[in-house]
Design a protein that fits this description.
Rossmann fold, 11-stranded mixed β-sheet, 13 helices, alpha/beta, GMP Synthetase, Chain A, domain 3, globular
């Protein structure tokens, strides 16, 4: 069954059930399906004509540039329905880059098996196009929904652009199950809390960067939350303990994945507390192996054009109980005059310090050592930066001291909910 056929089924069976809430604007399954059929996608998106030969069923890519969440979703689904290849552009992409992206797609072409395109997060460079078949998601939805406890009565809150693969996959997976998605365009955590309470949300999907924002602004308990689904990105014990206080009934389910490979491993908060550094065990039907410290993943639910066994050059090993222990991405290391410093390990250490709410380590060029790093920190109200610096100097060797520690009120985030380290580096270079 295709995604569109699944939505048509819900439109026929429960047309008045709420599928989506965007800033208090409610859309039923009937309304969503009708909008998919009536959307005139060709007039509001950038079209890239392809030369694929007579055997090709699809001959154009539609670059969706609308920044409205509901329009991104409807246009993406409408393109699937009409047999085109949709790709939602990140909101921060300028016209020049979209022109460049269109030129790359036209020049490089698209795999014949592709049904839609996704963009990498672009945290270390320009976002790159990747291509997927619809089956690479839809045939995995039941597997991931079972792990994440997503059912037809699920109400999930998430925040972010539909262009972020994690958001788009989760939204479609929830709609696949017949559940309800609640979201907002607002970056204010107080608004997130209002919607969670108003609609009795039972799931939250968010990366730790946004969970930290939620913790900082939440003054009451969110009793309705049963599950928090999050990426294992820079997870720390303090954050988990804070979330347990404001969401006393929740279970934490974390995952490790990649845009190229979908979900790879998962684990609960309790498992992480007993094995700090783990990213869990493989999802059903997924296999993992380690070779020379590099993680290899075997799965059929991957992007087009790569083999079933593939690596994104993440580093780690498998412990005696079958848990994958994660050491960061290959190259995620600062070479400070020959002394190697792991960026994930340094961020985890700095995040663990009393009074530190959020942190990001940014590599910079150093005339003497070649490379060095600075740390940007968001501190709790009562924390003093001077005392945190004093503690670092006491606990770490001088070669591991940041060249500078800069306090800021909030870390900048990309559309993909990841820390925008390119922007932080720009800020430092301008100082």
């Amino acid at each position: 069954m295709t995604i569109i056929e699944r939505l048509q089924q819900y439109k026929d069976l429960e047309p008045h059930k709420i599928a989506l809430v965007v800033d208090d604007e409610q859309y039923t399954y009937g309304e969503l399906y009708d909008a998919i059929l009536s959307s005139d996608i060709n007039t509001i998106s950038r079209t890239v004509e392809l030369t694929l030969g007579k055997e090709a069923v699809k001959n154009k890519v539609l670059l969706i540039q609308n920044q409205s969440f509901i329009e991104q979703l409807v246009q993406w689904l409408s393109s699937l329905y009409k047999g085109d290849i949709p790709m939602v552009c990140h909101n921060e992409m300028d016209t020049d880059y979209i022109d460049e992206l269109a030129s790359v797609i036209k020049s490089d072409g698209v795999p014949l098996s592709a049904d839609f395109g996704v963009l990498t997060s672009g945290t270390t460079g320009r976002p790159k196009p990747l291509w997927r078949s619809e089956k690479s998601w839809s045939e995995f939805f039941d597997i991931q929904n079972n792990i994440f406890h997503i059912k037809k009565d699920t109400k999930i809150f998430l925040h972010g652009s539909f262009s972020f693969t994690g958001v788009s996959n989760m939204v479609i997976a929830v709609l696949w199950s017949g559940g309800t998605v609640v979201t907002t365009s607002s970056m204010r955590p107080n608004r997130w809390i209002q919607l969670i309470e108003k609609y009795h949300v039972d799931h939250i999907y968010a990366l730790p960067t946004k969970l930290r924002l939620l913790v900082r602004h939440c003054k009451s308990k969110l009793e309705s939350i049963n599950f928090i689904i999050g990426g294992s990105q820079v997870l720390d014990r303090q954050l988990m303990e804070q979330l347990e206080v404001i969401c006393p009934n929740m279970e934490f389910i974390l995952y490790y994945g990649a845009s190229e490979l979908n979900y790879i491993t998962y684990f609960t908060g309790k498992e992480w507390l007993h094995r700090e550094g783990t990213v869990g065990r493989p999802f059903p039907s997924v296999q993992i192996a380690e070779q020379n410290g590099i993680i290899y993943v075997t799965t059929k639910y991957h992007i087009e054009g790569i083999p079933d066994t593939y690596t994104v050059n993440d580093c780690g090993y498998i412990d005696s109980d079958g848990y994958l222990m994660f050491n960061g991405r290959q190259g995620d290391v600062i070479n400070k005059g020959g002394y190697k410093i792991s960026i994930p390990e340094m961020e985890l250490y700095l995040q663990s310090l009393q009074g530190v709410s959020e942190v990001a380590v940014v590599t910079i060029t150093d005339d003497i050592r070649g490379e060095d790093f600075v740390a940007y920190m968001v501190l709790e109200d009562t924390a003093e930066l001077s005392k945190i610096i004093e503690l670092i100097h006491h606990e770490r060797p001088s070669v591991e001291w940041p060249k500078a520690i800069l306090e800021i009120p909030m870390l900048p985030l990309t559309e993909c909910s990841k820390v925008d380290k390119r922007k932080l580096k720009e800020w430092y270079n301008k100082e």
